[in-house]
Each structure stands twice: as structure tokens, then as C-alpha cells.
């Protein structure tokens, strides 16, 4: 009765996606199963396959939604450093999306929604790279972009995996990243105590 009512109201797809995000947040994307999602969402076993065909289709939908939200967050940042802050805050606020978005082996690479959302996010990430010192000297702008991406993505990944628990503490991860970027790129910034691997 519940699943039929959900389907007719057009909420079944959203219910399955929400259940998927909950499951990924708890156990990661590798443990995801359509049967478990149907149970979590309170729908029939066939319902997830009806909307997503298979597990790959479901994870692709999660990634497409994630990249669309990601692009929105990045596009509101005024410069490259603030895009890094937005990057970290997105990862902290959407950990399940983030775990899936950068796992191409889990996704259907030619999905139109995924391609559109990724293109928007990529454009937002690249904005401001030309202002980097390396790019201004005529060096490879693409490599400068990779360097900026690596810093934000590395911080976000370490954060989500629990490796920055002590350094971040109860502070806003975006503010911590902003301070980190200042230490690396602002010569007048005062360095703090070093953090060694395994000390968090």
C-alpha cells in the first residue's frame, strides 16, 4: 500500500535515491544492493530496477545529482580559494554523493545527466585558475588547475576518511581549509605546528 501510494505520487525515485544516500553514508558504495534499498525505502524489490535498471544506473543517478549540487556550490564562490572552501564544505555536507562522484568505475560514463552535471562542475572548478601565479607566467594552466584540485580534493578525502579529526576538531572544515590555503599561498601567513601522518 505504501509503495504503491509513493509510486503514484511520483516520489518513488526520490525515496530510492534517499535510501541509497543513507546506505552509502553508512557502508560506502561498494556494499550497496538494490534489494536492501527497496527494504529501506519501503517499496517492492522491483521498484529500484524500474527507475534505475541496475546498481550502476542508481549510482550514476547519485553521482549526477551530486555533480549538479556541487556545481551550484562552486559557482557561488567568488575566487579560486573560495571554490576550494566550497569544495571542502560540499564534501562535508554531502559525504555519500562525494564518495560516488569520483569513482568512475561505478558509473555509466555516457549517461547524459551525468555528463551535463560534470561539465557544469568542471567549468566552475576551472574558473579562476588563470589567476594562479603559475598560469600567469604562461605555464600549463591545466597543471595549475590539477594542483588546485588536488589540494581541495586531498583535504576533503582526508577529512571524510577521519584522518583530520584532531587538526579540524569542532571547527568548520571550510574555515580550516581557508587557513591552510593561506599558509601555502600567502607568504605573510604565520605557519602553525606541523601535523604528521598518524598523529590525528
Account of the 3D structure:
- 68% of the residues lie in helices and 0% in strands.
- With 200 residues, the protein is an all-alpha fold.
- It is globular.
- Residues 1-9 and 189-200 have low confidence and may be disordered.
In short:
By secondary structure, the protein is an all-alpha fold. Helix content is about 70%, strand content about 0%.
The SSE string, one letter per element, is HHHHHHHHHHHH
* CATH-level-2 architecture of the largest domain: Orthogonal Bundle
User: What is the number of helical segments per DSSP (H or I, 4+ residues)?
Assistant: 12
CATH topology of the largest domain: Tetracycline Repressor, domain 2
Biggest sheet features: none
Instruction: Specify the overall morphology.
Output: globular
Number of domains: 2
Kindly report the average pLDDT value: 85
What helical percentage do the residues reach? 55-70%
- Range of strand content: under 5%
Oligomeric status of the shown chains? single chain
- Rg from Cα: 19 Å
SSE layout and pairings?
Blueprint: H1 2-8, H2 12-27, H3 34-41, H4 47-52, H5 55-75, H6 80-93, H7 95-101, H8 112-126, H9 133-136, H10 141-160, H11 165-168, H12 173-185
Helix pairs in contact: 2-3, 2-7, 5-6, 5-7, 5-8, 6-7, 6-10, 6-12
Name its key features.
2 domains; single chain; mainly alpha; disordered N terminus; disordered C terminus; Arc Repressor Mutant, subunit A; Tetracycline Repressor, domain 2; globular; 200 residues
Amino acid at each position: 500500500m505504501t509503495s504503491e501510494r509513493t509510486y503514484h505520487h511520483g516520489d518513488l525515485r526520490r525515496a530510492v535515491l534517499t535510501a541509497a544516500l543513507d546506505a552509502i553514508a553508512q557502508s560506502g558504495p561498494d556494499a550497496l544492493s538494490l534489494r536492501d534499498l527497496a527494504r529501506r525505502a519501503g517499496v517492492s524489490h522491483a521498484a529500484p530496477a524500474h527507475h534505475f535498471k541496475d546498481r550502476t544506473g542508481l549510482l550514476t543517478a547519485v553521482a549526477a545529482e551530486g555533480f549538479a549540487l556541487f556545481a551550484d556550490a562552486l559557482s557561488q564562490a567568488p575566487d579560486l580559494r573560495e571554490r576550494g572552501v566550497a569544495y571542502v564544505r560540499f564534501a562535508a555536507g554531502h559525504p555519500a554523493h562525494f564518495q560516488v562522484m569520483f569513482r568512475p568505475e561505478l558509473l555509466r560514463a555516457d549517461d547524459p545527466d551525468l555528463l551535463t552535471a560534470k561539465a557544469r562542475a568542471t567549468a566552475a572548478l576551472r574558473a579562476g585558475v588563470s589567476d594562479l601565479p603559475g598560469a600567469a607566467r604562461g605555464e600549463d594552466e591545466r597543471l595549475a588547475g590539477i594542483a588546485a584540485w588536488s589540494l581541495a580534493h586531498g583535504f576533503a578525502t582526508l577529512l571524510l576518511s577521519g584522518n583530520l579529526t584532531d587538526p579540524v576538531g569542532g571547527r568548520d572544515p571550510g574555515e580550516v581549509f581557508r587557513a591552510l590555503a593561506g599558509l601555502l599561498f600567502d607568504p605573510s601567513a604565520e605557519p602553525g605546528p606541523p601535523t604528521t601522518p598518524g598523529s590525528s
